Amino acid sequence: MKNIKNKLLKLSLVASIFVSGASSLDLKQAVDLALKNNHELKAQAYDYKQSVQNIELSNANYLPKLDLAYGYNKRDEIVGNQSKEDASFSAALSYNLFNGLKDISNKQASQYLSKSSDYSLTALKHDIVLETKKAYINYLDKLNVLKTYESEYKLFDNQFKDAKNRYEQGLLARNDFLQVQVNMSGAKQNVVKAKSDVKIAKLQLSNILGGYDLSNESIENFEAKSIVSSTYKQELLEKRSEVEALKMSLEALKKQRKAQKGSYLPKLDAKIAHNRFYEDLGFNEIDGNDNQNVATLSASWNLYDGGSTQTQVAIYNTQISKLKTQIQKTQLDINLQYENAKSTLEVASDNYETASLALKQAKENYEIVNNRFKEGVSTSTDLTDANFLLTSAKQKYNRAYFDKYLSIATLDRIFEIK
């Protein structure tokens, strides 16, 4: 009795391990994994982080600079009051009082570039969501294709067994029997190809999820009732992340141009330095002249730089004009995306209804032809044609089903709905 209990305990442990090792993945979980693990998204996040660090870097221009310097001289010949050896040490605190407002403009440019990077990151997130949905749907589509071909093969296998019996009884011509066998072999090859397509589709989904291991994951299907489109307001398209990113880049260019124009204005710097002088390398102070404090206020104004500033301002003007054109083109492209996606959804919805009806008719047709074949009224060719028709109807139905969801997913991407 004790041995039986131990065996049952071991079996239960094995069963629990097997159950815990199996898991399923739904679409929402796949999207969440992609947003967390996708490598392209991680790279873009680092770009945004760098843009924030650039703002911190621009803040350094508002702080004073502290410099320490030490110099030592040893001469083979002396001139005038020079000594054979001397050394000096200085500590200088400097601060820029005015530089044509370049620091302010450059900081504002960094802030706009950071906002642009943030909008680009948001846009990429929505792209990744759509790509994840496409890969997820592609896998389910390939899986349904496999099931359809397996069903086709099963029907041909049953037809082959029946045809073989009829052939052996002399009720079926050899040519008809061989044709059934060829059809069954072709269906088997379709199954092999479909299995390979399923494997590739799963790997593609895994890559989008950042290499997440899906080998022990079952991918859940979604119900037709979940295919519901949202309310889309066309005016929201003007606030798409891609457009906002370009607008922020445009503002950054304007600030960079303003910073460049600061070169036309004078600069004003203040500096306070403390200097100490020594007789030699050993820090022996010079009697009566060992230290010095110096306060300096300097102003400079470049009157001509060979046209460099003027040319750079002209370059910024060209870049600004180009970016304005890109914004207009992007807005037009987004509107076109919307109209195309809306039309695609309408077509997909009609195709889904038609495919549903066609599948129902193909199923009924196969049942009728199969029963007539068993009664000897229909030929083997009629049954083969009915099988092909049923397989084609199943594939068209699955394609229409997923196309409808893909159209909605595309519209959600256009309006940045997760």
Quick take:
The chain is built from eight helices and six strands. It has 418 residues and is an alpha+beta fold.
What key phrases describe this protein's structure?
418 residues, alpha+beta, 8 helices, 6 strands
How would you describe the overall organization of this protein?
66% of the residues lie in helices and 12% in strands. The chain is of the alpha+beta class and 418 residues long. The longest helix is centred in the first third of the chain and has 67 residues, at 102-168. The radius of gyration is 38 Å and the shape is elongated. Its main location: membrane.
Mind sketching the topology for me?
Blueprint: H1 2-21, E1 23-25, H2 27-37, H3 39-59, E2 65-74, E3 85-98, H4 102-168, H5 174-208, E4 217-219, H6 241-261, E5 267-278, E6 291-300, H7 308-374, H8 380-414
Parallel strand pairs: 1-4
Antiparallel strand pairs: 2-3, 3-5, 5-6
